[in-house]
Write a structure and sequence with these properties.
Helix content: 25-40%
Bound molecules: flavin-adenine dinucleotide
Structural class: alpha+beta
Distance between the termini: 41 Å
Strand content: 15-25%
Strand order of the largest sheet: 15-12-14-13-19-20-17-22
Number of helices: 18
């Protein structure tokens, strides 16, 4: 009997564990949204787990981990499976562990507003629980309805809320966690904020995170506002004015008019011009109105987020790309931080080179406390060479690229190996069984073993 057959037989005997073996579910649970990238689509389409397990207790995770260790079988963790870089795709087959049954909000700490939550909890469910205490999550991906909090911390970066709270890896956005290591004696380990850092945004390569302690914010009613603006340059100026105002903002984005016409009707309305999209608390609405009037612009108040049939999150962050692809699968995208003060220079230069093949979608973010503009432009795909050329052009104009067409933690981030992430993998996953192929630094681990 092969090792994988031995494992498949063994997992059937574990209590509190659902085992999935049928081919259509194995395929479905081995994928995410990597097909936004034609490069990843080709690379990942045939990857499939040998078996998927859904643990309902810590003990059942430990039982699976022990067997994977004994038989040297790869183990890839899955949350909601909404990642864009094939983060939860099992490159070397083996076991996919789906965390969706471990989904309880375990504790709320009123004096700090911290919350302890199991990692399979959907962010939509988490916010419902937090609302009972007058709180809400600070940061949300636009996939918050179907994505898990564990997947967001392990595979996401930021999103709605990043205008105020920055990115997930910024100090203060993760307070602690519990995780299981994979060796001959797997255990549930506790990590404080500092110890948690190497497991934050590591694609589940250096520990199975079972719960997280996260900060929350006071719950507010967020109003969705749209400002119509014919002049793209002016829309950038106005967004900057809004982000500099003394108001609570949760979101600030710009979609250029060629993107707006491809968005759902409830959003695009009658005005197919560039649109600035904001989420602001009630006390800020009149300030935005004032900024608009002063600049001769029309403001649309779509109302409280909760009252809307469709949320504004359906047209921002990577949902803009989703809407473009719903119209035509030829669209892919890129992600970058624009050079401070030279955002429009970069956009104008690239417009001359790429014309309507490259359409602009900007997001206001806080980068280590400094208001900045990120961009998620959509690109009409015409091959890998052009993509590479475009990334080189962006870099030479001062942008920092977060490449969504690669499978490794480092490739999708700043392109550099994080020694602490590799050291944590050596310590908590010494055989390299967790999500193999996703941490570049692991291939060079000898350098880190001696340090
Ligand atoms: P998964 O995709 O299941 O997993 C992500 C990674 O986390 C994998 O490497 C997995 O192995 C690991 N992982 C999951 N759970 C655990 C665990 N318990 N322990 C250890 N590792 C674990 N991302 C953003 O950051 N911001 C956005 O605004 C955003 N918008 C998006 C819009 C669209 C249309 C799409 C398709 C994607 C978007 N994403 C965005 C990417 C993705 O949706 C989010 O990052 C999301 O939070 C991932 O959560 P998930 O539960 O789906 O994780």
């Amino acid at each position: 009997m092969s090792n994988i057959e031995k494992l498949k037989t063994y997992v059937e005997s574990i209590n509190d564990l659902e085992v999935i073996n049928n081919t259509s579910d194995l395929k479905r649970l081995s994928r995410d949204f990597y097909d936004y990238s034609p490069i990843l689509k080709e690379r990942l389409n045939d990857c499939i787990a040998d078996v998927v397990v859904r643990p309902k207790s810590i003990e059942s995770i430990i039982a699976v981990v022990k067997k994977c260790w004994d038989l040297s079988i790869p183990l890839t963790i899955r949350g909601g499976g909404t990642g864009n870089y094939g983060q939860c795709v099992p490159l070397l087959n083996g076991v996919v562990m789906h965390m969706n049954y471990l989904n309880k909000v375990e504790e709320f700490y009123p004096e700090t507003g911290f919350v302890k939550v199991q990692t399979g909890c959907l962010m939509s469910d988490m916010n419902k629980e937090l609302a009972k205490n007058g709180r809400e999550l600070r940061l949300l991906p636009s996939t918050w309805r179907t994505a898990t909090i564990g997947g967001f911390v392990s595979g996401g970066s930021g999103g709605i809320g990043s205008i105020r709270w920055g990115f997930l890896r910024d100090p203060g956005n993760l307070i602690g966690l519990e995780a299981i290591n994979i060796d001959s004696n797997p255990q549930l380990l506790k990590f404080n904020a500092e110890e948690s850092e190497p497991l934050n945004h590591a694609y589940g390569t250096n520990g199975i995170i079972t719960s997280l302690i996260l900060p929350t914010d006071v719950k507010r009613d967020w109003y969705s506002l749209v400002i119509n603006c014919d002049d793209f340059d002016k829309s950038v100026e106005i967004l900057k004015l809004c982000t500099a105002a003394a108001i609570n903002l949760k979101l600030g984005a710009i979609l250029e008019n060629e993107i707006v016409v491809k968005m759902p009707k409830w959003f695009r309305g009658q005005n197919n011009c560039n649109k600035i999209v904001l989420q602001v608390s009630l006390s800020g609405v009149q300030t935005i109105d004032f900024i608009c009037k002063k600049n001769g612009l029309e403001l649309q108040n779509l109302g409280k987020e909760i009252d809307l049939e469709y949320g504004i999150s359906d047209v921002v962050w990577n949902h803009t790309t989703l809407q473009m692809r719903a119209k035509d699968k030829v669209w892919t995208y890129l992600q970058m931080l624009l050079p401070l003060g030279n955002e429009l220079k970069l956009i104008k230069t690239l417009r001359k080179q790429y014309g309507k093949k490259l359409l602009w979608h900007l997001e206001a973010v806080s980068q280590q406390g400094v208001p900045r503009l990120a961009a998620l432009p959509v690109l009409k795909w015409s091959g890998e060479n052009e993509l590479k050329q475009l990334m080189d052009d962006c870099k030479s104009l001062g942008a920092i690229i977060f490449n969504p067409h690669v499978i490794t933690v480092e490739g999708g981030g700043l392109g550099v190996i994080d020694a602490d992430q590799v050291k944590a993998k050596i310590k908590y996953d010494p055989k390299g069984l967790l999500n193999p192929g996703k941490l570049e630094g692991w291939e060079k681990k000898e350098i880190f073993i001696s340090n």
